[in-house]
Automatic annotation (TrEMBL):
Predominant localisation class: membrane
Cited SUPFAM superfamilies: P-loop containing nucleoside triphosphate hydrolases
Species of the source: Candidatus Kryptonium thompsonii
Gene Ontology terms, MF aspect: GTP binding; GTPase activity; signal recognition particle binding
Function: Necessary for flagellar biosynthesis. May be involved in translocation of the flagellum.
Pfam families documented for this protein: SRP54
Protein name: Flagellar biosynthesis protein FlhF
């Protein structure tokens, strides 16, 4: 800080001199009247002395339009405090123009912390505002559902059903509330039973969905289970709409498991191959595609599926994808008229609530969930209790 005295007949003139010397930023720290120097000074009019000051480095930078740039407030406050401290130490300076109190930053910091906490609480409260209407145990369960990303409308539907079904005493019992929630979830979502080989009929099951979700792995798991555990006659057909021959994976498996496998390159192939395997109990159709984003591919695939005339079309969704993505996939694959939802990679998923949202939204029954890469172990029938427990408690029964 630069400090200087200026003397002039009037305050206005003294100020003008100060501004000329110290610049427009200069401020007046003090003023006083003084006698003119010399022996006859007392005869002359008094003069005005002002003490002007200017910051060496301005704390606030100014834009040309004079608007303050706030910068980092905490940094500015810190700098201000440093300047004041430096001036205070300089005791030889006669002008005591201490305009600021000393700031206690630790106090400011803890206050900011408190404000932050309060904001968090408000956010939580707003997010779960509809939970206020529920008694404590149910509220906890409701918040749990919301945290699993179950849609609020659906979570409220579940919670309200619990409220209707249980007595006041039961509502205070956390375990009882949990049980009821699982029961209600299993009533709100549809579930399909796996086909049972019956010998008189050939069941045709097709698996569709984006590349990489786990269709081929799932087909291999089911083929192995039907063949090994149910002693069923199984055939595999790979629908290769783009002739990209991405079939080695399934072919290798088919060879090892001793299951016949064919590739359909056209919808005519598909019809012929399904007819060819009419002696089987189960025909599993895997689908291969290059770019599932292309709607032509889906339309092409639709022809294949149509000529296979399947009993079940399972739309395979990866449980690891976002809800938005799942909806997008569902909308694109709708033309294939899927009648089952199959969730893969449940073992890697974070938000299992999406399973519930999708099943509820599409009204399609859930068929299976897959829980890893091991053939045939990592697959489970989507039974109500399994799914409800998975979503609600994140445990695989
Ligand atoms: N973690 C996990 N990985 C899986 C699961 N199912 C399949 N995968 C893996 O996902 C990848 C793609 O699977 P694939 O069956 O080829 O998908 P497709 O393109 O739909 O046929 C492979 O590495 C699989 O091993 C699952 O349930 N969990
Ligand atoms: Mg595949």
């Amino acid at each position: 800080m630069k400090i200087k005295k200026f003397v002039a007949p009037t305050l206005k003139e003294a100020t003008e001199i100060m501004k000329r010397e110290l610049g427009e930023e200069a401020i007046i720290l003090g003023t006083r009247r003084i006698k003119q120097p010399g022996i006859f000074g007392f005869l002359k009019p008094e003069l005005i002395e002002i003490v002007g000051a200017v910051e060496d480095e301005k704390i606030f930078k100014h834009k040309s339009n004079g608007e303050d740039i706030p910068g980092n407030t905490v940094d500015l406050l810190k700098k201000m405090s440093k300047d004041i401290e430096a001036r205070r130490k300089n005791s030889s300076e006669e002008i005591d123009a201490e305009p600021f109190e000393k700031y206690d930053y630790s106090e400011i910091k803890s206050e900011i912390e408190e404000v932050k906490q309060a904001l968090n609480q408000i956010t939580e409260h707003l997010k779960y505002k509809s939970s206020i209407q529920y008694p404590a145990a149910l509220r906890k369960a409701f918040v749990n559902l919301i945290e699993k990303e179950v849609e609020e409308g659906l979570a409220n539907k579940i919670a309200r059903a619990v409220l209707t079904n249980l007595s006041g005493d039961e509502l205070r019992n956390e375990k009882r509330v949990e049980e009821e929630i699982i029961k209600i979830i299993s009533e709100l979502v549809k579930f399909s039973k796996p086909v049972k080989p019956v010998r008189r009929k050939t069941f045709v099951l097709a698996f569709v969905g984006p590349t990489g979700v786990g269709k081929t792995t799932t087909v291999a798991k089911l083929a192995a289970i039907y063949r090994l555990f149910e002693n069923a006659k199984v055939a595999l057909i790979s629908a290769d709409t783009y002739r990209i021959a991405a079939i080695e994976q399934l072919q290798t498996f088919a060879n090892i498991a001793n299951i016949p496998m064919d590739v359909a390159y056209t919808s005519e192939d598909m019809a012929r191959l399904v007819r060819k395997h009419q002696d089987k109990d189960i025909i599993l159709i895997d689908t291969v595609g290059r770019n599932q984003r292309q709607s032509e591919h889906i339309f092409e695939l639709a022809k294949f599926i149509k000529s296979a005339d399947p009993d079940e079309v399972h739309l395979v969704l990866s449980a690891t994808s976002s809800y938005k993505n799942m909806i997008d996939v569902y909308n694109r694959f709708k033309v294939l008229v899927p009648n089952r939802l199959l969730f893969s990679k449940v073992d890697e998923a974070i938000c299992l609530g999406y399973i519930l949202n999708m099943a509820y939204k599409t009204k399609l029954p859930l068929s299976y969930i897959t829980t890893g890469q091991n053939v045939p172990d990592d697959i489970a029938v989507a039974e109500p209790k399994v799914i409800a427990n998975l979503i609600y408690k994140e445990v695989l029964l």
